[in-house]
Amino acid sequence: MVDRGLLYKEWKQHQALLLAIFFLLFLSTPLSIISEYFSYQGCLNNDNWNPRDCEFYLNYETGGSLQFFWAPGVLLAVAQLGIARSKGLLDFTLSLPYSRGRVFNTKFWMGSTMIVGAQLLGYLLSKLLIIFLKPGSVEFFDHFMIGSMIISFMAYALVMAAGALTGNIFAQLLTSFTVTILPFLILVLPALNLRVIIGRDLFWDRLPIVDSTIFQYMIPIIYVNPVWVMKSKYILLIPAAMSIVFYGIGYISFVKHASERSGSFFLWKQLDRPIQVFVIIAGILSFGYFGYGASESMIGYVFGMILGAVIGFFISYFAIYKKMKHL
């Protein structure tokens, strides 16, 4: 599954980035706890403050010290596939006597182990600090730390899957972002347009799934906002399941499709036309709805749809069919 020689090569190739990500994820939360403790001690030692007004408590309701815990995984996935492909490093790796499946698994499990392992060690160190420093209260700590591991793993798996499907860095990032809002584009955007056509009072109440908490947390981008910390712990089963799906898509795509640096948007050419049609339709629906919202008239709605069709066509055409230059 993972070859030690290939693992060593990947480590040497991304050593600086991996170490930076490890120490960032490992030390961020423990250092924030120490910082809060020193602030508390400074308050106690300040003659201008009443000690009763000094508090030492940890509340991770708003995400704590690392609200962008998903970002290192995105950066690492881009480096492992997008940048490696554009520089020709992936071509060299694939020329070695290893199967495509083993190459992908070695990259994936090295990256995910670094991301999740660093946070796990930071979690354990933070627990020791909490026991030793004895804050007055600790809120949502376990939920936040476990959730951050799961969601950062999901973000990493998503961008790795996008990198296995696409042929350049821009395509990898754009595809990743599109997937993070895909449930909204597929269900909510058409529902908003039907709401305009049929009528607000007649339609919206007939689609309760849009207001469903479960549906909302099936939109990956919602986890960027740490409001999930205050929700049920079972919500985290959704990003965990999505992570498995993204890994499967990435593995199959990497094994089945050519990975050489052609500069194309999608490595699987059969995706070009369907995705272009999807982008045009999304542009029509998006600009149509915003046109109606701006003018409160069907004229604005139709004008917005026409504008969205034109913009969607040009964006999709130049993004998908124009090859990127190599680095």
Automatic annotation (TrEMBL):
Which controlled-vocabulary keywords does the entry list? Membrane, Transmembrane, Transmembrane helix
Membrane-spanning residues: 16-40, 68-87, 108-132, 144-165, 177-198, 234-254, 275-292, 298-320
Domain of life from the UniProt record = Bacteria
Which InterPro entries does the record match to this protein? ABC-5_transporter, ABC_transptr_acetoin_YtrC/YtrD
Please name the PANTHER family in this protein's record.
ABC TRANSPORTER PERMEASE YTRC-RELATED
Quote the protein name from its UniProt record.
Answer: ABC transporter permease
The source organism is: Bacillus glycinifermentans
Specify the taxonomic lineage: Bacteria, Bacillati, Bacillota, Bacilli, Bacillales
